[in-house]
Amino acid sequence: MSPLDGGKPKDNLYKSSLTDTSHHIAFLTPLFWINDRARTSTRIKMSLSSVLSADAIDAAMKDCQAPDSFNCKKFFQQCGLTKKSPAEVKKVFGILDNDASGFIEEEELKFFLQRFNPGARVLTEKETKAFMSAADDDSDGMIGADEFQAMVLS
Ligand SMILES: [Ca+2]
Ligand SMILES: [Ca+2]
User: Which Gene3D superfamilies does the UniProt record give (predicted)?
Assistant: First the structure.
């Protein structure tokens, strides 16, 4: 028997079964994934104190209470983040990325201090812009996980 024998019927069978089922699959996209993502981000938010000590966070917060006194490098040193492992730094990134988009946008950066302490002030526009430009290596206006890690651990 040559390999070509019977090739045609098989091919036809495959084609017909593909057209019968493939157009049904598009309707199965589950909408509840959106809710699931929001729940995950709430869970991560509660774990900042599991990475950093409360005393170190307090010390870092006290030092930038006055508007325009915030310096991101100094803050990361004072809160102890610069001494953490890449995995822990990534965890903190996940907390700061409040909407779980995979990036820290300028809007999230503004509320940076409030992730550490809900009663803290928002960053001024000047501080937010300085923070962004210190981390945003590819200038896309957002801080990616790699950019965040590079800034903190540099
Ligand atoms: Ca985000
Ligand atoms: Ca970027």
Answer: EF-hand (1.10.238.10)
- C-alpha angle 7/9/11, rounded to 5°? 65
Segment 13-61, tens digit of pLDDT:
555 555 555 555 555 555 555 555 555 544 444 568 889 999 999 999 9
Question: Scanning the structure block, which residue is given the tokens 């709430």?
Answer: 42
pLDDT of residue 50: 85
**125 known ligand binder:** no
Instruction: For residue 136, say whether it is annotated as part of any ligand binding site.
Output: yes
Res. 133: pLDDT tops 70: yes
Residues with Cβ < 8 Å from 152, sequence gap 6 or more? Answer: 76, 81, 82, 89
**Predicted TM-score (pTM) of this structure:** 0.70
CA of 55 to the centre of ligand 2 (A): 31
- The ligand whose atoms approach the alpha carbon of 105 most closely is 1
97 is in an annotated binding site: yes
